Amino acid sequence: MANFLSSFLPLLFLLFISSDFPKSFSSYQTVKTFIFRVDSESKPSIFPTHYHWYTSEFAEPTRILHVYDTVFHGFSAVVTETHAASLSNHPSVLAVFEDRRRELHTTRSPQFLGLRNQHGLWSDSDYGSDVIIGVFDTGIWPERRSFSDTNLGPIPARWKGVCQTGAKFVAKNCNRKLIGARFFSKGHEAAAGLGGPIAGINETIEFMSPRDADGHGTHTASTAAGRHSFRASMEGYAAGIAKGVAPKARLAVYKVCWKNSGCFDSDILAAFDGAVNDGVDVISISIGGGDGISSPYYLDPIAIGAYGAVSRGVFVSSSAGNDGPNLMSVTNLAPWLVTVGAGTIDRNFPADVILGDARRLNGVSLYSGEQLKGKMYPLVYPGKSGVLSASLCMENSLDPSVVKGKIVICDRGSSPRVAKGLVVQKAGGVGMILANGVSNGEGLVGDAHILPACALGSDEGDAVKSYVSSSANPTATIDFKGTVIGIKPAPVVASFTGRGPNGLNPEILKPDLIAPGVNILAAWTDAVGPTGLDSDQRKTEFNILSGTSMACPHVSGAAALLKSAHPDWSPAAIRSAMMTTASITDNKNQPMIDEATGKQSTPYDFGAGHLNLDRAMDPGLIYDITNNDYENFLCAIGYNPKLVQVVTRSPAVCPMKKPLPENLNYPSIAALFSTTSRGPTSKTFIRTVTNVGQANAVYVAKIEAPKGVRVTVKPVELVFTPAVKKRSFFVTITADSKHLVVDDSGAVFGSLSWTDGNKHVVRSPIVVTQLDPL
After folding, report:
1. How far apart (Å, rounded) are the C-alpha atoms in residues 652 and 710?
2. For 80, 263, 308, 502, which has the most beta carbons within 10 A of its beta carbon?
């Protein structure tokens, strides 16, 4: 007893001096949700569990939201800023960060990826059978045919997850296809309870369960792993056979995002913890920062949670964000994350605006209601008055006396595209022309508008506005042309997709690759219509959406197929197979173009290229990365052992000689040169490849040097035998900053390919960038 007291009294004293909040918080104290990263090995032995330790020493039980013990050690709690600051000085607390709100990055595509029914990766992987994909999103509408378990075998024995019940979601909503479902709301509810802009969960339009009230989660889940072989369309558009990328893969849904409210880091971390414990093989997360700022990895719960998953063999696919075409707009930058941008497919939904002077302006639309039938209507541009809100067709900005009975031109931006149509309709308008600005360029996506509407690119938008200004009685109509297949060129890099360079560590090229993300048909919720507007009462089994949110689950499904075909491959090996076999040409066999500019795109736009699963099945060589490699990378970028442990969970020992971040064994190479360097400067990179093809093979280097740059490789030939499966090589890049002719992004681009002279071409992009010294 005396020994117990001698160990416990100091703890009581610590509690007394560190607990600076009373049982009920004073009104003048700022209370927020914080996430605490704790050194789990520091738990005093008197506590039976970490939860007992946390509730005794750090926060009251009623204040703790989540306890994390798998991908992350620690907890989230609602405390005062003062208390959080006090705990940050506790010797067992490695890091403290405020809970942050995230945003969603919102079917011919499998064929467009090179998948075929009779041979190739679909058949070789048995369509992804028994691989489990965890989808972090807005939940699922389980009754959809895309989630049928007909002819599927038993649930994999390794599965340890649950089917969490709740509002309009019962245990039988899960089956052999949808094998698990959970929802995470504590972080969201805590934020709503603290006041501010976050509203509580409105249970009249949302479900306190895994059921999807938004549609986004149902769409991404069915894109990754929807069943196949039944007819599908959205109001007649994109008619064809519905199928996900991995039709036989099992789904586990983790609802972390809530209708109109976003997603909170504390809930996302809890989902990572749950998914890895449950036994998923792949995690698909179409979520990113809503503020355009990329946090350091040790302050980024998505990066930390993803590392915990990847270090246990779980592949994590993430979206690159929709803030393109601006440079350095790519998000989800951690090198263990696979970062996916968006491209177009060879299907489009054209619509023409026909002006009173007989000109036809080409646009797109998914409007499926009553047609205008060639009737000409008066055309008006509210922005002509100079009032910004009117030009954007914001709520209550339009004068009915001006727009009634007319087609209205609305500028894109500041509010959802479909919401502008509702504003026009309420004001009495009969149709809408949605005009891109310079920032959107010529990038167009189709929308299921509630009134006749057509989206136009920036040039055509300027033309229609000029027509209104120059004509005494401007008129127009809209001609909807349905679905057109075989569009060329395709793929094209979507204008909205997040672009490089990597804003945290430009030595790592991001995005990694692109996948179909424009006008993607997939399953939809019954809770809202295809526009997502509360007033849209239409019901549709499928919807067509665009965004890197749609591209990400294509790669998640692809990872499931590759994991099924190659169960021993690591997440890095799967990514390498995708990147080194990606396509950089379109269906006209020309270099892919950028939708925003109409010019040739670059690795800052598409990473290694467009996903090509027909080749990824058999890549020949792969660039593998171990957990120790990632730890060395964190040491290389200047993290001390404590910061490394925040990410990796384990105490880190950085090498005596500081490693170079560019020597992470990544399937791409990015060389940074200072603009102030005098004369030619050289940098040497080391890479190691593993032979996963024929045991006896010889690969020869093929170099496409960036313009004005010298690239050498040693050795130029790699010989593999049954006994020698790994080979290392050095790449030396020499550039003279004074004479380097870079593009608008400050870079020049090339590639290194290893070819066996047969079918394998293992390609890595090379990026040479000029940087001003800090």
Report:
1. 37
2. 263
